[in-house]
Amino acid sequence: MERTFRVSQVNAYVRNLLEGDRLLSRITVEGEVSNCKYHPSGHVYFSLKEQDAQLACVMFASARVRGLTFAMRDGMQVLVTGRISLYDRDGRCQLYATSVQPAGIGLLFEELEKRKKALYEEGLFDEAHKKPLPPLPRRIGIVTAEKGAALQDILQILRRRNPYLQPVLSPCQVQGEGAAASICRALRRIEKANVDVIIVGRGGGSIEDLWAFNEECVARAVYACGIPVVSAVGHEINTTLIDYVADVVAPTPSAAAELVSYKSEELTARLVDCHAALFRAMQKCIEQERAKTEALAARLKFVSPANRLARDRESLTASAERLRWLMRRALTDERTALVLTEERLRKVLPMRLREARSDLGVLAARLEGLSPAKALSKGYAYVTTESGPVTGVAALKRGGRIRGYVSDGSFEAEVTRIFENEGKNNE
After folding, report:
1. Which pLDDT tens digit goes with each residue over 298-331?
2. CATH topology of domain 7-104
3. Which of 404, 403, 399 is nearest to 415 (CA)?
4. Pairing of strands 139-143, 166-169
5. Alpha-carbon distance 40 to 58, whole Å?
6. Is pTM beyond 0.70 here?
């Protein structure tokens, strides 16, 4: 009985045959790009076709980073390098691409990559060198072909957005032999024309058509320009060497005109808003200054000599009134105190007099009891010598004179004998 296989087994067998073939494991195929789709995941799906054949291709995002250095689109003739295998789910044979290059111009791309690397290492691509676009340019410099569609697109956008802008054309040859030197001369010429910004560009085309903008001399002329330069070469998918050295890159010449211009209506509206804001700010400033002036005037009036004199006069008057009131009050208080004191004296003085008389009688009696005259009246005598009163026999000496005082007079005598208390005779 003949053996039966499942679909997955057949597909796996065919895939192994294809991947085991040395020729198909790394192959380069030339053809025209068809049905080119960039998936949000980063993968690129396309087909290579010729008159009677077509080959499905896929380039994964990981391979696209290094393997696809240009914007691939339908109709391009390319060289695709990769491996042939079978996609099991659809049973479709396809080319898994690792590198895609335009057919017939691989050397040009290789040369372009060399120039990019050299200029990058010199620092011509540094962001620090990029100049900002002027916010309100008046004169727009344009470096392009005098009769090209790019010029008409730029002028149309500028006229539509702001008729007051002044475009200044520096015509040049944009492709063919001598185009690079022509672009460099146009750049040097427009730099002396007192413009605010420069647009360098042309319409789309093949890499050969745009090659003048990949020349090193043009890139260095753009880098050395002292005026901001906008690169607007080709369409959005085109990338040239001057895109890396220009200050700003626009996807198309029309987009470049949009970038460097501004609508006159928007400027008018901004001016109106600025005028209103300035008017409000001035009003606020005037009000603040008026308030400051009024405050200073009030302060000056407060500290003026006349006002100070008036205030001092009022203060002096008030102080005088208060002093008079205090004096009247003090006099009233003193009169009241005097009346009270007088009343108290009337009540207390007779009692104090009686008490004083009683005390005086007691003292007089005591004094009378101590009086020497009273003692003399009782027979006592007060005896003195020349040196003082006689208080004892030690003050006497025999033959000495003494004087005695009695109640009704005095006498003098001579000491003849001295007796001590013991009764001894002291002669």
Report:
1. 877 777 787 778 777 888 888 888 888 888 888 8
2. OB fold (Dihydrolipoamide Acetyltransferase, E2P) (2.40.50)
3. 399
4. parallel
5. 14
6. no
